[in-house]
Amino acid sequence: MPLALLAAACTQQKTDVETVVFEKSDTVSPFSDAIKKIELVPLETADAFLLGGELELTPVESGYVVTDVPSSQILFFAPDGSFRNRIGMSGNGPAEYPDILNVQVDAQGEVVVFSNLEDILYFGLDGRLLRKERQEGLGLQSCLVPEGILSYYGYGSSRPERVVLHGADGARGFLKSDAHVLGITPDAPLFSSCGDTFYFTDAYDPTVYSYKDGEVSPVLEFDFGKYALGAHFFEFEDPFDAAVYMLAQPDGFMLIRRYMRDERHQFVETSLQKEPAIEAFYAFETDGRWQWFYPGPLDESPFAGSIKALRDGSLYCLLPADALTAEDNGMGGDLASLRALIVNPEALERISPDDNPVIAKIELK
User: Fold this and answer.
1) Between 4 and 25, residue with greater pLDDT
2) What is the DSSP string of 21-88?
3) Residue 245: in which H helix or E strand, if any?
4) Average pLDDT of 214-234?
5) Of 202, 213, 220, 230, which is closest to residue 266 (Cα–Cα)?
6) CA–CA separation, 361 vs 38, rounded Å?
7) Average pLDDT score over residue span 79-90
8) Cis amide prior to 146 (ω within 30 degrees)
9) pLDDT for residue 177 is more than 60
10) Residue 210 near residue 198, CB atoms below 8 Å
11) Are 103 and 65 in contact (CB under 8 A)?
């Protein structure tokens, strides 16, 4: 999960919101104790639709949409993991996308691809292009909302706000910024939704925000303790001085990487960045109680960095085949409590290191 730093200048807003305190964990036990069962769905593998390592997953009623951002491909798989079709393709033609900023499956079940900072392509799950629209000057990631397009620019853009709503009546900005810090290119989806409310994370800000009915509001603020960048980070006049300060933190620094929720649960992935390693820590909330857990190192554990979606009481992971076939991670050692919850462990026996990843559907209590 490396940070990609851009050039920049912008702000930090503080509002009284519910605070969640980070509690560093070295075990996966709180997570395994909250699980009813895990079902594995190996994705079909073939040279014509081989996936890379930086993937996103969107479960839909009729299967799974898998996005491979670096290779600009979107694939649709059936509920049993068999390959169905591509959704559009990489390129510069009228029905193609030159790159993928992010993908959204909207309320109508259409796959919406934001590309090239201005193109919005709508596809059916059968891969056919339904229509293409253009909105010039979109941000790093965007999201369709009832009022238009909510777009995230973050720190480092030429705009005075980090988030802008592009609607029928023009543009309206939120989270005005004047801090001189370098921007971050997100390496995970910023936007998620639950019902008619949309949620997003905000780079260095330890706050999760919501959007509904034309308004942005803070929802949660995470207290990262000694791993927090703190107010001083936003006081530098030179963004490169701020970056030096950030990278020199003796304990490293922690950022929110991913947030999502459903009607009963909340889930957050955080990234603790301390040279030379990066660690992922997770927390979930059920019935008002937050619990932190650690699934193991990113370069060893198949669950670290692999939890992608939350829907209807289940978390969805993309487990790398090479990690699952490595020694002890089919799954032993510290992850044995998770393996005991798998209802079809025989699926692990059919996996080879070069296969496409395995979806793990984790049903929560």
Assistant:
1) 25
2) E------SHHHHTTEEEEEEEEPP--GGG---SSEEEEEETTEEEEEETTTTEEEEE-TTS-EEEE-S
3) helix 239-247
4) 96
5) 220
6) 6
7) 96
8) no
9) yes
10) yes
11) yes
